[in-house]
Amino acid sequence: MRDQDSDLWKGFMFAFLLFLLSSLQSLFNHQYMYSCFTVGMRVKTAVMGLVYRKSLVISSAARQSCTVGEIVNLVSADTQKLMDMVVYFNAVWVAPIEIALCLFFLWQRLGPSALAGIATVILIFPLNGFIAKMRSKLQVSSHTHTHTHTHTHTHTDS
């Protein structure tokens, strides 16, 4: 009877610790993302200000080579990419470490049976690559359409 009470107590403790650590992880992750978005927004705002300031002082010869639509596109789309880079930069170096640690712990826990999970991960990589290529093509197509639309409006308004 004493052993069952001990096991029950450990079970409740582990459940509470799991809840506590999950809550703390969520709290810290949200704080981290908030900080990254704040820094990213500040970088985006600073670059937008610099581009607008530069667009106001460029010579008329330089204005002929650059349309208003291109400047607006530079400010809106490209500064957003810069902000996204600030926010998600750490994922570039953290993701491979997380994958390696997960595979290591999977091997530690399951032994050779972990090869099924590792094989699944390896087989999914080409699918992710294919989806990323398709998304990239669609994004380029959308960007080209947006550029054409902006260029048409710029020349129509002039």
Automatic annotation (TrEMBL):
The chain crosses the membrane at residues 7-26, 86-107, 113-132. PROSITE patterns: ABC_TM1F. One of its GO terms (cellular component) is membrane. InterPro entries: ABC1_TM_dom (IPR011527), ABC1_TM_sf (IPR036640), ABC_transporter_C-like (IPR050173). Keywords: ATP-binding, Membrane, Nucleotide-binding, Transmembrane, Transmembrane helix, Transport. It comes from Hucho hucho. Pfam families: ABC_membrane. One of its GO terms (molecular function) is ATP binding. This is ABC transmembrane type-1 domain-containing protein. Residues 1-139 form the ABC transmembrane type-1 domain.
